[in-house]
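Course assignment 3, question 2. Fill in each field.
Student: A.L.
Task: Predict the tertiary structure for the chain below.
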Amino acid sequence: MQATSDEVLIARIAGGDRLAMQVLYARHHVRVYRFVLRLVRNDSAAEDLISEVFLDVWRQAASFEGRSAVTTWLLAIARFKALSTLRRRPEEELDDEMAGAIEDPSDDPGRTLEIKEKSEILRKCLTALSPEHREIIDLVYYHEKSVEEVAEIVGIPENTVKTRMFYARKKLAEQLKAAGIERGWP
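Answer field:
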């Protein structure tokens, strides 16, 4: 069942196939969890939301129309649930925490340290972006979504996604330059 497409899995889930649900969950829960965690910045809240997202998938699989990729549908459900949770908790700041740099074991210790330092600077610069800009950067670069998919997930026009992307990259480049990191990173 590993080679089965996400769309086929959704169709099977709509028919009550628990194994298909397990495969879909195994395939996508880490990606969806990381996306939600960046939004809510709370491990237990993110875990609760993941359960809700996949429960919704189980309940709503029959309503999936296939107008977008399954991953886009999952991230849209996750985003809606995360933002709803954040609206219920206004005392907590909406902020983004980027995943740590993945160390390459082939790098020497000096190079590894340099990459870690630059990654930390990048995380700080990303955190300084507005929530709207962080979200666009996250979906495009970390989740590899197209402009069209981001527009669908976020619920804004494609041109707005492009505009936010432009200004987010511009602001990020300015912040990185001010922090002493020029192009050619890492």
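Instructor remarks: The helical segments are 6-14, 18-40, 43-60, 70-88, 109-127, 131-142, 147-154, 158-178. The radius of gyration is 18 Å.
Grade: pending
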